[in-house]
Amino acid sequence: MERYALTGTPGTGKTTISALLQNDLISLSDYYEKFSDGKTKDGEWVVNIKRLESSIKSLEWEIAEGNFSHLLSIIDKVIVLRCDPAVLVNRLKERNYSRKKIRENLEAEAMGIIYSESVRNYGVENLIQVDTSKKTSKQCSIIIRNYINNNIKVEEEIDYLERILDWY
What we know:
Number of domains: 1
CATH class: Alpha Beta
CATH topology: Rossmann fold
Radius of gyration: 16 Å
Order of helices and strands: EHEEEHEEHHHEH
Strand content: 15-25%
Number of strands: 7
Shape: globular
Mean pLDDT: 91
Helix content: 25-40%
Structural class: alpha/beta
Largest sheet: 5 strands, parallel
Strand order of the largest sheet: 2-5-1-6-7
């Protein structure tokens, strides 16, 4: 069985979409505290990825959901959820993120940080991007399920870098 990372910037739909997938799922956020080296001054967990990975590698799961799941070495393929920063900003505001945290995540999404890390770690042939900006969570879950079942090939090119120009 292949193992997948379902990853993306906060607010792109990882948790919502993973709940719709009918696959063995492990949510990495359930392990943050247990495998953490504490929190940053902003209150974010500093997760020891190697310790977490050692703990979950023998468990039964097909999809690891979390914004750093693409950094695990026990993954075969990566699914990167993307979202237009013009849409993402509203999702993050609904979560009451600070202005600083919103800006940080919008810039990361516009620059495609998680996508770039995933390409570097797994190669472009082992990942897909799914744009959640205009699709419903159900539509996205169907695309992902079809990809996992080898029913479709997804070659969606996503580039939000020009959005940064609107901010300055």
